């Protein structure tokens, strides 16, 4: 029987849709116990149903964590619960993102700007110091994975591009700081995929030419 400490534990933030959903599903299929965090309860329940329906011998399990990533107290409680239950994390995949509608810089909606900064930048800065001790407690060198989407400076991508660039700047600083002592900070750039977010950014695009989300999730999990 696998002991609690021997299980590979992964936290996937932004697991209710898109690439986060697919990566959580892929990790569970490969035997990881996945803590799936997202605000959308229905999406998390769909994820859990898919994992249970496809479960094979040796597959992992899901723990659903429905919460708003901008709520510091909820994140702190979750990390404390992970510590109390497993004592560690082996992997953190940070897929949570707010994709604000495209708009010229002078016309960015203030609420969309505030939400972009809160989810894409501020929450990352809050999560890193909470998650880092759990990653350091892993028996083998743990990994934090960030998903880059370089849009900074592109026309109409002001809110998304600037806040995502802030997230990645923080991730790259952490990557350099931990190069020798861990955890490993892995930054990957997913291929263009047929996600709902991309459909909003590029309406009318030929989606047949885009990468399959499940296949891209498998490729990224292979990197881990």
From TrEMBL:
<keyword id="KW-0560">Oxidoreductase</keyword>
<protein>
    <submittedName>
        <fullName>SDR family NAD(P)-dependent oxidoreductase</fullName>
    </submittedName>
</protein>
<dbReference type="Pfam" id="PF00106">
    <property type="entry name" value="adh_short"/>
</dbReference>
<dbReference type="InterPro" id="IPR036291">
    <property type="entry name" value="NAD(P)-bd_dom_sf"/>
</dbReference>
<dbReference type="InterPro" id="IPR002347">
    <property type="entry name" value="SDR_fam"/>
</dbReference>
<comment type="similarity">
    <text>Belongs to the short-chain dehydrogenases/reductases (SDR) family.</text>
</comment>
């Amino acid at each position: 029987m696998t002991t609690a400490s021997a299980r590979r534990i992964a936290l996937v933030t932004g697991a209710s849709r898109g690439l986060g959903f697919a990566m959580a599903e892929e990790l569970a299929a490969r035997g990881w116990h996945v803590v799936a965090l997202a605000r959308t309860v229905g999406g998390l329940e769909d994820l859990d149903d898919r994992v249970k329906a496809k479960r094979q011998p040796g597959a992992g399990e899901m723990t659903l964590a429905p919460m708003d990533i901008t709520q510091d107290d909820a994140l702190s409680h979750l990390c404390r619960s992970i510590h109390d239950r497993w004592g560690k994390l082996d992997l953190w995949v940070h897929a949570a993102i707010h994709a604000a509608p495209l708009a010229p810089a002078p016309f960015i909606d203030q609420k969309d700007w505030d939400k972009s900064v809160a989810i894409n930048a501020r929450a990352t800065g809050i999560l890193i110091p909470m998650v880092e001790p759990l990653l350091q407690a892993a028996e083998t060198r743990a990994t934090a994975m960030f998903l880059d989407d370089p849009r900074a400076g592109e026309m109409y991508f002001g809110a998304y591009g600037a806040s995502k660039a802030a997230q990645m700047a923080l991730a790259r600083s952490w990557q350099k700081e931990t190069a020798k002592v861990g955890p490993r900070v892995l930054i990957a750039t997913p291929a263009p995929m047929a996600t709902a977010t991309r459909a909003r950014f590029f309406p009318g695009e030929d989606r047949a030419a885009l990468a399959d989300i499940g296949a891209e999730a498998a490729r990224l999990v292979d990197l881990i």
